[in-house]
Amino acid sequence: MSTLLAADARAISWAGLRENHTPPADQADTQSIQSNIKRRVQSFWQKAPCDSWFTTDPIGTPEFYRTLDEHRYQVHPQLQSAVGFEKTEGQRVLEIGCGCGSEAELFTRAGARYTAVDLTNAALNVTKRRFELANLKGTFTQGDAENLPFANESFDFVYSHGVLHHTPDTARTIREIYRVLSPGGRAVIMLYHKASVNYQVNLRVVRRLRAHLLKTQLGLCVAQKVFGESQEALRRHAELIKENASAYLDMQSILNRNTDGPDNPLSQVFTKSSAKEMFWQFDNIKTDVMFWNPKWLPGIGKLLPQAIENQLAARWGWHLWIYAQKPRLESRAAWGPILRAEEQIQIPEQREALAEAA
Which of 58, 121, 180, 284 has its Cβ near the most Cβ atoms within 10 Å? Predict the structure, then answer.
């Protein structure tokens, strides 16, 4: 395994055990560590499917889906063009992590034969309800992205937006995507971007400084005005800081707790290089960067012209998109021995990296 993937593995091991503020035993089993993290990830997202907190309308109502979608595509105006839904007509599409079904509906309306797999039944139920209201057809399966419950070559297109950086072994999920794709099939995956202003400036600097504000009531009020977060979320951050300030300020903890909520068990970030490395079996690998939030630069972020925001998003945005294609049938024979060797070598090396981090 490369040093890039080994570094990601080390971060994962410490992230998964940081909640107890104690390092793992010297001979801790990798699978046990990862299973523990995954259970916590599942529990966290079971409480609230992704994006459901962006609307106050009753969950499962037409108004819920309408206002949620309006918010989603206002915040992510490039998302629909980035995916290219219109190109999936007639294709077997798998979405890993369906959230509240925003893209599920777009795939289906574009004529795709849609399947969702999600670690939680909460997300699946919310998306199924959307399909019932819209009289749409799809297939919904609860399952683990690291062990997809589908046969080889079951899909022509695999999509995942902001999901695979929350599972302990992201590299394994990419191997699974490769397995279930048909020859010539395409993958479109979004992961959090390490070389972003959000990670390098907001999380590394701004959020650490904010942690000191949250130690007082006055600081809480100032933080709410500056960062626009709810009092409830800020108070939870304050509780965590009070419990163990040094643990909270650890970079992996800052990353976890300041993406998707203060009790989020795990988030990861990837560079273009480390992402491409995980997709090494694929052909035609391309990357793109997008999504900018003015709140990452408190005070000045909202003053930036749209043109400047667009330039920042294209270079230092938070969302790293990876586009890749599985080799066509005639070129697959050469990959067999390499794939088998990769499966034998990479997992043991990841275990060593986890043990080293412990």
Answer: 180
